[in-house]
Amino acid sequence: MRISTIQAYNNSVGGLQKNYGNVTRTQEQISTGKRILTPADDPVASVRLLQLSQEQSLNDQHKSNITAAKNSLNSEESILQSVGNVIQRIREIAVQAGDGAQDSSDKGALATELKQREDELLSLLNSKDASGKYLFSGSQGDKQPFVRNPDGTYTYQGDESQRQVPIASSTLLNISDSGKALFDDVINSNRVTTAVAVANTGSGRVSLGSVVDKLDYDGTFPSSTPPSANDGVGIRFLDDVNYEIYDLNDPALPGGYSALATGAIDRDDKTQDKIVYGGVSVIIDGHPAAGDDFSIKRDPSSEKKGLLNVVSDLRKALEGATNDQAGSYAIRDATAVALTNLDAASAQVLTGRGQIGARLNTIESTETFIDDVKLVNTGVISDLQDLDYAEALSRLSMQSTILQAAQQSYVKISGLNLFNFLN
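-> structure tokens emitted (423 positions)
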């Protein structure tokens, strides 16, 4: 078989290029420390490396979300602790205000401090996290949750949802709370209205009603479907001591009624005679006369009251305090209601702190899991991708020798010519 000169040259050049490529590739592997330079080097391992890289990137994003979530929740927990401290101080003011020895000027001084605490609460409830989002506006992080109305009451503007971030592939974590759930939906102890009948002849007075047993109130206090304006009970005195309780919606009224309960007030303490029915407690002050009527009605619109409005109502009561008996009764009623509502608000704040603690525990366990997964993935990536330097250096030495031999062969082959053998 004849071999042409061009064929010999091509074979030699092809061999040189192949050997040079092998040396270059090995040198690049050594310089980068990677066994796989292109997917063609190991298609199966390349696909697995791509999957692991994507998983690592996702875990890095989850770690970033975890950091943001921890910062937000720690800020929220700190704010709730401060809110609890302010509530405690307001409670102390309420107890002090209930002291009968306080005159109107003393109550005015307490109202001044209460106003400052009220402003402090408003500022705390409108707190933002590190990213500038309101903590207690639900999912509406850019909307201020609580605003003060012109009449001094407060309105919640956020929603009842929560902002969430993914901290793992299948784990979403709440990083905010609804101010409505934490501070606005406080069970109101004074969710009934009380009144004295115009025709009464005695000096009896009925205090603000206070729900002291929610289950009893929900189960037995008179109500109708649909709700009626007269849902509630009447208290009619048979003489200056004994009374009967009846349903204000009793069809036998006004000619007669069926007594729901009977009782007698304590003649030995005519200034504080307590009557409890259907989970509602009222105090009959003064001296009622036979035939005097008092009413206690359900008020569905006041089932709940916001923390800020609880404080505002107490402040207004203190600011309007008078130095007469009626003023003392009004402050006594206002402080009693405020104390019960403040305790309910404090319980909700503590519940909120407990929920935040549970979320922080979830973050801690999830973060540990992600760190473990990243460590395992790093080991797998290393096994698939990292270069065995000892093997690569030995291979480079052999490939360099082969390249040198190929180069020398090429020189000799390229020098062969038929004319060299003709004289």
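The longest strand covers residues 232-237.
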